[in-house]
Amino acid sequence: MAKIANIPIIDISGDDQTRVAKDLVEAAIEHGFVYIKNTGEDIPAEAIDGAFEISKRLFEAPLSEKQACTIQKNNRGWSGMNYETLDPANQRVGDFKEAFNFGSFLHHRAQQPLPPSITADEARISAFRDLCYQLSLKLTTLLGHGLAVDPPTFFTSAHERARGPSGTILRFLRYPPRSALPSTAAATAEDVRAGAHSDYGSLTLLFRLRGQPGLEVLLADGATWAPVPVVPPGAEGDAAPPVLVNVGDLLSYWTGGLLRSTVHRVVFPRGEREGDGGVVVEGEGDGAAMRYSIAYFCHPFGGAELGPVPSERVRGYKGGLAEGNPYAERRVMTADEHLKMRLKASYAQLYEEKDKAKEEA
Ligand SMILES: O=C(O)CCC(=O)C(=O)O
Ligand SMILES: [Fe+2]
After folding, report:
1. Disulfide check for 170: which of 102, 132, 216, 341 has CB 3.0–4.6 Å away?
2. Is residue 233 part of a domain?
3. For residue range 332-352, what is the model confidence (pLDDT) as tens digits?
C-alpha cells in the first residue's frame, strides 16, 4: 500500500497562538497542506453534514436543471463529466467529475442561477460559505503572524470583502465510480478523477467524507504520489474529520515560493484500478460509491498584487517558486489576471466555444 502523506494536524484553538502560527507556517512550508482539527468551533459538524446533503440533492437533480446553470466565464455554475481538465498536458480526457461553483451571495441571495432543487437552501449555502470565509481569515492572520509580515494582517486585509469582488468559490464536487460510467465513456487505468494541479487561490479548505479516499499529493521529490487520508492517524475520535487546508498559488507568489502550492490530484479507488490487486487505500474506500467533496477556494480581491510581502523570512528565502507548477515561473500582476489565465487553461471548451462565436459574429 502506498505510504500516506505525513501532514500534521493542528488545533488552531490552542492557548498558545504564537505556537499555532509557527506550526501552521512550518506545515505550509514543508507540505503545503495541513489538517485543521475539527473542534466544531469554526465549522460545526452539522453545517458540514448539511452542506453535503444539499450537494447530494443538487447532483441528483434532473440534468436539465443542472444544464440550465452551466458554468460561465465568471466561473459560476455547473460543469458536467469530463468538462474541466485540470492537467491538460497529461490527460487524455477531462476530469471524471461533476462540479457546481457558487460565487458570492448578496444578503444570502445567490448572484447566479441555481437549480430549483436547491433554491430553498440558498441561505444555508451562503451561511456555509461565510463560515469558510471566517476560518480562512483566521488562517491568513495566523500565517501573517507566523511569517512576521509587516503588518501581520497583510494577507487578511487583502481578503476583506470591502476591497472589492474576488474569485472566491464554494464548490460542490461529485465523482462517479468506474462502474457508473457509461461504456461509451469508460475510464482507462491511467484516467483520473481530477488531474494533477495546484490550486488557483490563496488557500483552499477541503471537506471530505469518511470512506471516500482518492486525494493524493505529489511529494517534494516530484515523483511520488502519497494518499491523503480523510481521517489521519490521531483524528479517529473527533466528531468530524479535520478540515484539510492547502496553500494555493497566490500565497506561494506572495511568499516567493516559501509557502508551497503543492500539486495534488484525485484518483479512482485503487481497488478499482486494473492490475493492482485490489488494494484499497486506508481500508475505507468503497469503490462502487459516488465520492463527494466540498472545496472552498479562497481568493483575495481581484486587484490584489502578488509580489513578495514585507517579511524577513520571505526575503531570506532563496528557493524560488515551487517546481512542478508550470505557472509558478510566470510573474503575474494581480489575482484577477492570474485566475483568468488558469481558467482558460482548464476549460478549453468554454473558451473555444465563446471565441468561435465571437469570430462568427
Ligand atoms: O475532491 C478532492 O478531494 C480535491 C479536489 C481538488 O483538488 C480541487 O477541486 O481543486
Ligand atoms: Fe485542488
Report:
1. 102
2. yes
3. 579 999 999 899 999 988 988
